Fold these 4 entries.
Entry 1:
Amino acid sequence: MSNALSNPVIESEEHRALRAAVAALAKRYGREYFATVVAEGRHTDELWQEAAKAGYLGVNLPEEYGGGGAGITELSLVLEELGAAGCPLLMLVVSPAICGTVIARFGTEEQKRTWLPGLADGSRKMAFGITEPDAGSNSHRITTTARQDGGDWVLNGRKIFVSGVDIADATLIVGRTEDARTGKLKPCLFIVPRETPGFGRSPVPMELAAPEKQFELTLDDVRLPADALVGEEDAGLLQLFAGLNPERIMTAAFALGMGRYALARAVDYARTRQVWKEPIGAHQALAHPLAQCHIELELAALMMRKAALLYDAGDDMAAGEAANMAKYAAAEAAVHTVDQAVHTLGGNGLTREYGLASLVTAARVARIAPVSREMILNFVSHQSLGLPKSY
């Protein structure tokens, strides 16, 4: 299936080569491997390790710390191609994209030396905890607090829907410290190693079929050394959004890969499935909706490219708008495409053999996480259009 982004005018020769190499690796694993891992309750360790060995996992991290020295543009291509083969690695969104980016941009030299080489070569993983049971999309209501006690920090609070805590060496926790001058709480980021006393986790039962599990975290007087704080205490919001923009771009890549996988399965079926004289793909009632899905995926891919290029160029403000739009567009395109793919296959679309039914639930995730489509519409109406807030 042709992809306009493979045009050398739009995508460089290096990016096309990266796509091809990742696609070749992903094809050797594919959806059957992914489904087997989920069914057996395992993790995608073999694919993770092979992708790491090829240098794909840390392609966005600085070369001096073992990374590829590229950007979110390249990392998003890696995730998209893995997804297009049916075997996405969700921890790519969290470990190198969010946590790796935040530490690379704002961490101390010691934090960079401690974490970035491992995140780059895949030997270490890091989770990210921001959402809370009672805060939802309102990050201003985060109640996980951090107070100083002597030379230490002490954290208390709860987090929900944190991916991969069981396989992560540490979790980057968004807490809030109190400004002594104003009494107001301000966001700060802390590295919390997995086995830290008082740091508890319990799995959240999910209908989602994925190797990465979701967890609720409790922080009960979690004591951390002073150097657990990432960056400056007074620059929390800047540091936080430096990680959230890559998260949105990578979620777009995740959704795009899923949509491409579903569309390819549907097109292949429509070309070959014959009920009357012609294959069912000859009927416009099936052909046109698939063509529409292809257009929507291409449009979302272009917006993702714009967002990634703006972010990698250091334009955080413009990247924030584009990243939100890319995540919105890719999620909508993925949900539409998965639905149409299942419909194209009819009853076969719901069988385990064709591997599309599980994507119905998975596609919804991109609409909900890491920020709902309604909150993105709020962002665009307020920030892009200058309309007044309703909250």
Entry 2:
Amino acid sequence: MEILWVLMALVMLGFVVLPVLRRRRGMIERVPPGHPDAADPADYGFVRQEELDVRMPGPDQDLLDVLDLVQRTQDHRAASQLLAGTEAAGELRWQRVQAFAGAASLELARRPGGVSETPGGQWLRVWRAEAPKDAGGAAVHAEFLVQQAWRTATPGTDDFRIIMEEAKAACAEAALLAPGDPIPYIVELSVARGLAYPREEFEQLWLKILDRAPAHMGAHLAALHYWCEKWHGSREQAMSFAEAAAARAPQGSLLSAMPLFAVFEHLPEVNLVAGFYQSEVVTKAIHGALHAVHSARADDPMLAHVRHMLVFFLVRGERWAEAMNQLLHIDGHVGALPWTLSPDPAAEFAVYRALAVAGYEANGGSPATLPH
């Protein structure tokens, strides 16, 4: 009987490991870097792992320049001006609010402050004190509190609830300063998840967002978490929400990619099905995301998010050439799902990139055959 259990365990291990390493003809061998047979991502112009930018999913030079200036001088005015000049209901403003809040939160984590030390992120506190009517500063402060709650406390504890209640009040204040702005309500979606809003209260919040920005991809991704099985919904509810968003997506919208994110949120921790990533559900979600990418504006701020998720699924599905095509557009930046769930996003991304290159070359591809 013990031998039977050992044999069963080996078979199950094969189902878990082989789908990752197998290609359509033969096997992909994970050879170490520097080996003569190792596929080299640098041959395709990809940047080195240590140079990958983990802060953002794609380039935003204006944001980087302002962040550098603010953190170097501790003067908030450049951040205020950048947000004031960014479309209120657009995806880019939401990403910039998140970036400023994240920068302040990380500064505070690195320099908590003390008797003789100024705490990190002081520029955000000064911003709120000197410009209390600045809608941009209010939105950044609300998002900062949300990130602090998730970063420094455990959901369900008193500390977590106290910070989240403060964030909820900050969202309300930011909403009063800019009545037509969806950002304060999008920030509150994370509060709703953390504080377990009742279904009716969450839906009322969601309607406020739909009234202001019905096709906002960032808002839909934030709302999706609430409906997931691990939070306050189920696999079926999350997929229903994602499919409804895709069905009403206007031409050129990336909302058609929502089902792929819903599938990702409900991936099994251990995959025992050899063809899971070629299954009908996954294939349909991938095709929806590819359609969204092909029809979206080249400058859509959410485009990189979808491309990063596609790389994950295309590599898992052994669709090497398509994965390489997505990598050409996003390489250099890794501040997006699924990589940000890893303690080392750059390393995680680099593994998938190396697998894509190896699979592409194992099937006859080369830098010369990859269209640019």
Entry 3:
Amino acid sequence: MQQLSAGQKLDNAFEKLGKEKSISFELDLDTDAQSLKALDASSDPEPGEEMSDDIAELFSGVKASVTLQSKKPIAESGEKDYVGMSLKIGNKDGDLTEYRVVGDYTYIRSDVNAVGKAMGFPAPSAKDLPPGADGLKKVLQGQWVKINTKEFEKGTADMAAVPGAKPAPEPTLDAKTQQRLLEALRGTIAREVDFKTVDGKDGAEHITATAPFRTLITKLLGEIRPLAKNLPVGMELPTDKDLKDAPNAKVAADFTLKNGELTEVSVDLAELAENAKVKKLGLVVRMVDGQTPTAPAGATEMGVDEFLGGFGAAMMDQEAFSEDAA
């Protein structure tokens, strides 16, 4: 009865969340620099491509804040139904980058110097920019800029297109297929996942879901494969052979519910690393009060060519300068 009760409670909580037209959540990477470097080392990176201390420190403290706003309930929404979206990424030192999609525009700001330093690609200075790149100067100063979203999408698609080739159809997933995928997920979880319920503080309830990773993924993909013909073009599912070397350690996810509503999810992934030096590796998702993405005042409008071409050219000049200096 406890298994059924816990599963039903989670199912109801996610259904309730899916009926919302706006959701906001924070995503934390619960790890440390030592674990990230150990995880990187176990992947046998090429000499000189090992994760640096700066990058490990950057990602060990990363937090992302996300808001989605739709005309329809989230569970029924397709790409065209979203009317607002925002993503902010930061760490203990402050915000690193943020973008918002509101109306016809995408708004962006970033601490270019902090990101560039951590990634090993120092940002160009204003004097490195081509003439007329006023918008890019604002980017380097950490101020808001805006780009027409449709023009930006077209520009990036044109850059990625093979000359003479027909444009690939946009990936779509119809509502019926979405529902069948959801049913496959629910059925697999009901059969393969063990649930345990514990009462928490302040009326909160904790439900722990545990399952062997490879078994869960293999069973889930087995349920999804009959739907493969209905999936977007280019979405290929891994075979059982592809998954045979995946770790089968048990993964535990802890769900916190309050008044029947999902408030937090935490997942411990350290066991999947199969590396004793990876001491801490988890993900935490916290639901927060719904917010409405708004257009920031005073954003400088940039043309797509300036954004895609000018900044890239400036970065290439910076790399060339660094090579010459070496």
Entry 4:
Amino acid sequence: MRKKPIAMLLTLTLILAVFLSGCSNSGSDGEGEASGSGSDGKVTLKFMHLWPAGSSAQQNKLVNEIIKQYQTDHPNVTIKQEVLENEQYKNKLKILSASNELPDVGVTWAAGFLEPYVKGNLFAPLDDLLSGSLEGKFIAGTTEAYAVDGKTYALPIELNISPIYYNKDIFAKYNLQPPATYDEFLNVVKTLTDNGVVPIALGNKDRWTGSLWYMYLANRLGGDALEKAINGTGKFDDPALIQAAAEVQKLVDMNAFNKGYNGLSNDEGKSEFMNEKAAMYLMGTWELPNYTTNPDVPQEFKDKIGFFKFPTMDGGKSDINSWVGGPGVGLFVAQNSKVKDEAQKFVQYFVEKWGESSVNDAGVIPATKVDTAEVQLQQLYTDLLNELNQASSLTLFADVQMKPTAAQVHLDMIQALFGKAVTPEEFVKNHQEAIDKGN
């Protein structure tokens, strides 16, 4: 990181912090109040998360129910929320970390995203919580994604896989079946475009959305070639990784995506699918509430939604049960929190209640184990939960695997690839250079 004069950095941080605080859409009552405990035993705890009522209605409702119950059970505690959209959240987290002013409890991603915060001594270890009431509660492999040098710095609350959702009515109108092979998938795309229907909804301004498409193509063609290129045991000039980039641009040439996709946010791209203007939408299972439990989505639309696994590719090295996904977000406790003990108690409580209620109340897959005999599940949810149980492999999202600088290059290159501003060869070359820099 290039050093800047301290005064300039502090000024920039303050300006950006004020700007991003203004972007919060949460009704973040109490934002700006200091957290801590008073002489009267009262505790104020700041919690920053990314489930706005608009785009994540069911998750937001569940969060508020958990907070309300916690405050009832702990009348000396007041929890002040700040809620931001995904990209705004990431930006503000960086700004707050620069001045070591993180909220007492916040949301983080795993692996490469988590590491700089841990190295900066910004997140507190939470291993003690894993030996308490949460011991044995997590699905195998989920907490490990949040470990650095043998210590666990966040507790996961979600586990996701990424299916291709599709509109069954649109498929039926053109006599289409969910494709099992990539050739069949390309035929679906061609049939839809020939009939004036947008095949795929995409909002690639956020870039990680387009990364899902590249990751699946890389996986189907090269197996674990992408993971090896990221961790340094392989190279990005692997022919499968170049071909995957070429396949992305082939889809672009086929007009597979809605117009203007590179300038649309994920929510804007998703609306093309939700409004039945596009036939397919590739996204994580955090979208399940919109197709199962969200009361604001008409049941008539929910009944039209199915899913299929990303198709296999001729001569490829992975099978159809290999998924892009992994642990979703987790909760951290700030190392310098003035109410660290209470923050850890809240994280433990939140994880337990989220695990108990998220299936029925929010329609999402928790990172803690689900006793399916104890809950009534909608069919779409059941089918995807079964797919998760049968997964042959789970490839963690590329930008989460990578260290921050490389992740930024990856996201920028994804948008350039979809915009045909780089060739497949330039795409992999830039990735390799970023990985070689090691930061």
